[in-house]
UniProtKB/TrEMBL annotation:
<protein>
    <recommendedName>
        <fullName>PKD domain-containing protein</fullName>
    </recommendedName>
</protein>
<dbReference type="GO" id="GO:0005975">
    <property type="term" value="P:carbohydrate metabolic process"/>
</dbReference>
<feature type="domain" description="PKD">
    <location>
        <begin position="85"/>
        <end position="165"/>
    </location>
</feature>
<keyword id="KW-0732">Signal</keyword>
<dbReference type="Pfam" id="PF00801">
    <property type="entry name" value="PKD"/>
</dbReference>
<feature type="region of interest" description="Disordered">
    <location>
        <begin position="172"/>
        <end position="201"/>
    </location>
</feature>
<dbReference type="InterPro" id="IPR035986">
    <property type="entry name" value="PKD_dom_sf"/>
</dbReference>
<dbReference type="InterPro" id="IPR000601">
    <property type="entry name" value="PKD_dom"/>
</dbReference>
<dbReference type="InterPro" id="IPR013783">
    <property type="entry name" value="Ig-like_fold"/>
</dbReference>
<feature type="signal peptide">
    <location>
        <begin position="1"/>
        <end position="26"/>
    </location>
</feature>
Amino acid sequence: MYRHRVMISAAVAAAAVGFVPVTAQAAGPSADPGRAATATSPAPAAGSAKDAAVRDLAAQQAKAKADATARSAASAGARQGEYFDVFMGAVNSNAHSVGLATSASTDLTNSFVAYDIDWGDGTIDREYGPAGTNVYVNHRYAEVGAHKITITATDTYHKVSATTTQDIVLDGSEFTPHTPTRLLDTRDGTGTGAPAGRPVAPYTTTRVKIAGNGGIPAGVTAVALNITATNASSGGHVIAYASGTKQPATSNVNFVAGQTVPNLAIVPVGEDGYVELANRSEGPVDLIADVTGYFTRSAASGYTSVKPSRLVDTRTGLGAAAGPVAGRTTFGVQVAGQGGLPAAGVTAVALNITATGPKGSGHLTAFPSGQQAPSTSSVNFTAGQTVANAVIVPVGPDGKINIRNGAWDPADVIVDVTGYYSADGKAAYLPMEPERRFDSRTGTWPLAGQDYHYETMWTSGRALEAVVLNLTVTNTQGSGHLAVAPDPSTVADRIAGKAVRPTPPDSSVLNWTKGATVSNLVQASTGTSGVVDIWNRGWEPTDLIVDIFGTYEKN
């Protein structure tokens, strides 16, 4: 048995007409069980980016005609052929592509125009059309970043030409690893500007400076933060979002009183270089934010997903010495050349790290080899708890990372890999406003044990590599874990009755016990089918919530 919901946004639907806005305005979730998601802002209408290009083009044409009329009025008996000019309206359409409208304006009769479009990457296209008629063109770049488009229009009969240029910056962002660094700790005042520690009051926010902090440059578009809630006096959740934008109805970290809970978030950065962290609970809570990397609209490291696989399991001796990791000790993990990763060139790795069977409270810290262990945390746990957390870890020059058990007591450690970043990676990140895609509490039923739910990404021809999801289980009726992998069958296969039941992967992204509410970020590969499977690997039903935060798009 399986259940699914097609994932489609206004931006993706607009792609069918050729010009699409990069950011889908969509509904976001609430972390509170039983509370429905509400729309935070309307979605842009299909074709709105194309309309913007046309409006830009029309304004340029109107000005040119007005100037020509003025010249004609100033010069009695001015002859025909007073002017010939070309105009361009360009808009970004997705991570690696741009769409433009171009047209020539002239008073030459029977003007038919050849448009030579130099995209600034060594590619030149030629298009034709009558003067005064808009010509629409899309182009896909191999690299994100800044490009100069030059259009030379030539009247094919009168042999007159005109040229126009426009600078564009593609919307896709690539990743730069950052040594794990603490940017915020309200317990001691780090990053708050306060002389002493002070928790975040109920239903208030705290700001985290990203751009210009710790070597992070200006112009950063998104940041990878490990956000930890601790010393909570009541249950609630944390919302992370870009400064200067409306607070969404989403959640990034769920917690109960007295609990210490981390979760990875990829957060858009506001124009002022800050992100906001909101405490959505009835009591104060301390918040910690550790950075491991950031995204910019320039060439850096692209993302490549891999089939989820297990690199380390200290319970069996896989990838490390067998037996729990002793307290206050560190072990190395070979990443490059393992689990589908290349042997060289990996700058950072996307992992899911699980602590299980700990004998006491503490935390794990993942960091690049060749460096001292930073004062940050990747996974927090208490005695006897099994806790998983997604992390993005910079990789050392020898292709390894280190994991330190910061507790005084031993704990077993499991490491699963889901993807990696490299200069050769072809997928760039596109953040979107958080949207709830599925909630089994509303209009459906809990996900049964050993069953799976599948989500279909409607791509309209876009080449997706992966989607950034936050998965939450609640109302759990027993213990278990989630596993995520691309489905081998396409939507067309299902319609034709040719779909085959997938095999769940030997990995986990989220662990829970009876009665818990737990969430974790997942960078889920869409595979070749564009379908993502989410498995309940427990034996009892659980409610499942699926939220989407962005996509990785290939060139």
